[in-house]
Design goal:
With 182 residues, the chain is mainly alpha-helical. The protein has one domain. Helices cover 63% and strands 0% of the residues. It has nine helices and no strands.
Length: 182
Amino acid sequence: MFRSRILLAVAGSLGLVAQVSLAQTGSQKSSSSRPLSRDDPDMQAMRNYKLSMDKLDRWAVSNRAVAVYIKAHPEVKKPGATDIGDAKTFSEMERRARAEAPGYVKALESSGLSFREWWLVMGSLMPAYVAAQYERPGMPPAKDVLPENIAFVKANKQKITDLFAEFQKMNVDAKSDKDDGN
């Protein structure tokens, strides 16, 4: 089901380097086996998306709302529900999400970010975070990551690290609930 694809993305946003980071280098394929290339419009949108504190704050609110939704709807955590079908674009994913998981989308958009913008924040933040972590003097700049986003991450490293830790804890707590049969 589509919901689990979103949940996997949320897990990625909870401190794990998501498939999006690899996709931006063109070395990963989507779950529908469509190569994600530099020319892919969604990859271009993520590459060119500029992060801001307002967007980061709203993204964090969205992630918290989604965690609450998931806790209240354990059916979205069922094993084997990881197929998003043939959705290949943000627009297709959004159509499926609105049809199959309207409550999830409502939670995700509760911060004022659209479904698409939530994905753009996540898809821009993750590679910028990784690039900022591994950037060293004399190294070439990170490919396909806006320098402004790397600078944003560096300037806000503690806040972003704290958010990731918070989200990771929520993810671990959700897994514990599942293991407990909740």
